[in-house]
Structure formats: structure tokens, C-alpha cells
């Protein structure tokens, strides 16, 4: 995804006949997309770590003792 955004940035900002204001808007949009991708990646990694921790807790959890 990051490579695709970089490619898009190069194409948009390097195009002939693009007005300066349009370049600024394109750059801002691409930067916003980068931030969204970075946040999404972070969120996925945090979820994976959380799931891993929960699995470890479940795995290590001892069977409850029977009260007789």
C-alpha cells in the first residue's frame, strides 16, 4: 500500500499542466492517506498483540478446582 501511495504521489505531482493549488491538494490528500494507512497498520499490529496475549492467558489458565 505504501508503494502504491508513493507511485501515486510521483504521478500526480510530476504531471504536466497541474496547477500549484492542485498539487498542494494532491499532496495533502496523499499525506492523509499515508496517515490512515499508518494508523491502520498500527491498529492491526496492536490487535494481533492483544489476541496473542489473550491466547497465552487462555492457554496458561488452569482448570478450575472442583469444590467437593
Describe the model.
It contains two helices and no strands. The protein is mostly helical and 68 residues long. It has one domain. The protein is rod-shaped, with a radius of gyration of 23 Å.
Computed structural class: mainly alpha
Number of DSSP-assigned strands? 0
- The fraction of residues assigned to DSSP E strands is under 5%
Arithmetic mean of pLDDT: 72
Cα shape:
rod-shaped
Low-confidence residue ranges: none
Index terms:
single chain; 68 residues; mainly alpha
Please give the structural blueprint.
Blueprint: H1 2-14, H2 20-60
Short description:
The chain is mainly alpha-helical and about 70 residues long. The protein has helices spanning about 1-15, 20-60.
